[in-house]
Amino acid sequence: MKVDIIGDIHGCIDELVELFQELGYQWEQSFPVHPDGRLPIFLGDLTDRGPNSIGVIDLVYQMVVNDKAKYVPGNHCNKLYRFFLGNKVKEQHGLETTTAEYRQLDSKRQKEIQHHFMTLYEKAPLYLELPEVNAVVAHAGIREDLIGQSGKKVQTFVLYGDITGETHNDGRPVRRDWAQHYTGNRWIVYGHTPVRTPRKVNKTINIDTGCVFGNELTAFRLPEESLVSVPSKQPFVEEKFNYHTD
Question: Which PANTHER family does this entry report, sorted A to Z (predicted)?
Fold first, then answer.
């Protein structure tokens, strides 16, 4: 098994297409396939903030339902899912861009996108264990003692990180730097917190290189342990990279 784990996309469809080309994928019908049978894995936060969240939903859905990719959800995915359920969620922190795109669609297309995304989300594992490449893929990471478990505590950690319940002055949640204390021998591949360059700590790697904030979209390849990135087409937002704790 060979995999390409792809960081937070946030509606940046052009960069995703370019990344697939850089990784050697070829388009068959309506989605990319690797000639060597490599498996792409999306680590969550497909939508919000970027220019084409609907396009990303379409592409990822086609790949996953045709067994050409795997997907685990992120916190933005969770919020969009709750929106589609009809729950009262605040359309902010990026969700407003996805719902604006959604409302531009005709009713038939709206139903299709809602069905595609809810199917993706409901069928997705909370995190993905990949023994063939000695790795675990989880949107915001996972502590070693939580691997193999499920439940509310694990869900909160995997979607939001090791949050303390407190917030910084700018409203960001305070998170413990769990990666510093990781001692396992499996790769933990995650995203969630934008970093300028992929952040390796112990056997963990954060590959959310802030594509939607103007930096890069990154894939981590296993078993090669190699990185491939493409530059973002979005404007660079300096303050999104001013902190280091994941």
Answer: BIS(5'-NUCLEOSYL)-TETRAPHOSPHATASE PRPE [ASYMMETRICAL] (PTHR42850:SF7), METALLOPHOSPHOESTERASE (PTHR42850)
